[in-house]
Amino acid sequence: YVFYTYLRPIFSKSLNFDPSLITILLTVYGVMSLISNQASGKIADYKGLKAMPTLYTIEFFLLGAMPLLLANTWLGTVNIMLVGVFMYLINSPLQLHIMGVAERDYPQSLVLASSLNSIFSNLGISLGSAVGGLVVANIGLNNVGLGGTVFILCALIATIMLNKVNAKQPALD
């Protein structure tokens, strides 16, 4: 969400798209997000959190390359659309993991567990947007991808650690 908050200015200022095309570009980005959410469910069924380190690594490079790719309208646009595809892949695997742990270890807290994902997602959205504002104010709009890499790196490390803990636990059904 460091970069997501600035999609419209990135399309109009960095990539120099005509304002009449912004709605179309945001719609295409929305379709990429839908694809991401659909793929998220398939990842949750297939590999779950075990797939996340690879996906986070790809997203790290996509966000890290953003400042360079925004210099070219089409490469920058493809980069943003690919980030849109990778951005929501964690949703289903994480939600299912949280619910599985709650069901296995704390069955009386399933309602609380289901709300935690939304609470912390909203916290992450607001924190990412705030960091995006700091990045734009201090090092420029084209560098919001670099701000996002910090969060991806933290998520990557946390997921690797969580996968190690999960390897020592009984399997979640």
- Global geometry: elongated
Low-confidence stretches: none
In whole angstroms, how far apart are the ends? 32 Å
Roughly how many Å is the radius of gyration? Answer: 17 Å
Taken as a percent bin, the fraction of beta residues is under 5%
* Largest sheet composition: none
Number of strands: 0
Secondary-structure-based class equals mainly alpha
Number of helices: 7
Proportion of residues in helical segments: over 70%
Q: Any overview of this molecule?
A:
With 173 residues, the chain is mainly alpha-helical. It is 78% helix and 0% strand. The chain has helices at residues 7-14, 22-46, 52-69, 73-87, 91-105, 110-139, 144-167. Helix 3 (52-69) runs antiparallel to helix 7 (144-167), helix 5 packs antiparallel against helix 6 and helix 6 packs antiparallel against helix 7. The longest helix is centred in the C-terminal third of the chain and has 30 residues, at 110-139. The radius of gyration is 17 Å and the shape is elongated. The mean pLDDT is 91.
